[in-house]
């Protein structure tokens, strides 16, 4: 990854984008793709849709990576100026007390902390009990409701106050890798396809919204785009850390490359083409069996209109839906290379009807 690509990656990940409030991240995507693609537009839901045209009669391939992240929303301001909140998406209540957060208010970001009584003042039973979200609160340092209300409002979104940090080698940590790295990969594939100029598809890349609250952006954009093929670019569960359940997640390690899903959500012919496009003379890409519909944009793409041949490709991720997600930048590059190469292999007339 070049330094320029890393700065794009970092800016995208750190832009606040809880579900329903994605436009700070989408502005980063639009700037990155402006002048690169043949068409760039934003729909009424906030999905950013970018197209690189292929040859005449080329099939339409939709790549979708959602840019929304988990977070919180302010629900109530009490008379002492403390903010009560509810989660946006799947947030683990265990993780929240003691965290620094940012309230993204109309007047700009407001720093705060999620308070917690000191351990000295907790009864033994309370120490092991999960504090429900309705009992948690944010302290922004204001003395009363009027002072807090001058800075923030009910309905303002909130994120964990952490950004991208390098660990060792090509490993990095941050909040919100799920799934801004999918949106990043989609943007990078569009750039790579434009540079290569050998695509056999019309490539439509979508940075989708509101995936964490019901696959909404993927549903609407797939309906409007009418793709012949659809691939969701996601994060997948790495299992190379202590206490990971290999029987559930398989043996997935960072640095191995992207994960290819199999199951009823996946078109078998498209899956085989992805396998054949993968690295030759090296260990095969890791796979993951998903016996049900996946909880990703691949699910809604598959069911759009009369049906779409779909696949799911995922970047291995440790500690998903926490403020300390960890991934390997090399896996992002391998995913971009695989998808750019795939775009050159799907010839007009290629059938994806299961035989």
Intertermini distance = 40 Å
Structural category: alpha+beta
Major pleated sheet: 8 strands, mixed
User: In order across it, which strands form the biggest sheet?
Assistant: 1-2-12-3-13-16-14-15
What is the helix/strand order?
HHEEEEEEEHEHEEEHEHEHEHEHEEH
Strand content: 25-35%
Helix share bin: 25-40%
Q: Which residues sit in consecutive blocks of at least 5 with pLDDT less than 50?
A: none
| β-strand number | 17
What best-fitting shape do the alpha-carbon axes yield?
A: globular
Radius of gyration based on Cα positions: 21 Å
Q: Count the DSSP helices.
A: 10
The average pLDDT score comes to 95
Describe the structure.
The protein is of the alpha+beta class. About 25% of the residues lie in helices and about 25% in strands. It has helices spanning about 5-15, 25-35, 125, 145-150, 175-195, 215-225, 245-250, 270-275, 295-300, 330-345; strands at about 40, 50, 60-65, 70-75, 85-90, 100-105, 110-115, 135-140, 155-160, 165, 170-175, 200-210, 230-235, 260, 285-290, 310-315, 325-330. An eight-stranded mixed sheet has the order 1-2-12-3-13-16-14-15, sandwiched between helices. Helix 1 (about 5-15) packs antiparallel against helix 2. The longest helix has 20 residues, at about 175-195. The protein is globular. The two termini are about 40 Å apart. The mean pLDDT is about 95.
């Amino acid at each position: 990854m070049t330094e320029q690509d890393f700065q794009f990656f970092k800016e995208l990940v750190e832009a606040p984008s809880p579900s329903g409030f994605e436009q700070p991240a989408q502005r980063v995507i639009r700037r990155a793709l402006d002048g690169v693609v043949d068409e760039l537009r934003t729909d009424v839901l906030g999905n950013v849709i970018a197209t690189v045209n292929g040859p005449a009669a080329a099939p339409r391939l939709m790549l979708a990576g959602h840019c929304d992240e988990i977070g919180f929303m302010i629900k109530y301001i009490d008379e002492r100026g403390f903010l009560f909140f509810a989660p946006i998406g799947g947030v683990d209540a265990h993780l929240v007390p003691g965290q620094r957060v940012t309230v993204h208010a109309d007047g700009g970001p407001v720093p705060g902390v999620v308070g917690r009584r000191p351990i000295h003042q907790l009864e033994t039973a309370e120490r092991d009990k999960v504090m429900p979200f309705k009992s948690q609160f944010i302290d922004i340092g204001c003395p009363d409701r009027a002072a807090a209300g001058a800075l923030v409002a009910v309905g303002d979104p909130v994120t964990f106050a952490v950004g991208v940090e390098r660990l060792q080698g090509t490993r990095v940590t941050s909040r919100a890798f799920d799934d801004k790295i999918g949106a990043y990969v989609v943007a990078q594939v569009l750039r790579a396809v434009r540079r290569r100029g050998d695509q056999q598809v019309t490539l439509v890349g979508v940075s989708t919204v509101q995936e964490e609250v019901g696959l909404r952006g993927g549903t609407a954009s797939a309906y409007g785009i009418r793709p012949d093929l659809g691939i969701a670019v996601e994060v997948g569960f790495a299992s190379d850390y202590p206490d990971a359940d290999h029987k559930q997640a398989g043996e997935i390690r960072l640095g191995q490359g992207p994960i290819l899903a199999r199951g009823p959500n996946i078109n078998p012919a498209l899956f085989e083409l992805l396998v054949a496009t993968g690295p030759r003379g090296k260990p095969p890409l890791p796979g993951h069996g998903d016996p049900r519909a996946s909880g990703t944009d691949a699910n809604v793409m598959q069911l759009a209109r009369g049906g779409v041949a779909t696949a799911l490709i995922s970047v291995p991720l440790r500690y998903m839906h926490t403020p300390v997600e960890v991934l390997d930048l090399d896996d992002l590059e391998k995913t971009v290379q695989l998808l750019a190469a795939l775009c050159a292999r799907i010839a007009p007339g290629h059938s994806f009807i299961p035989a």
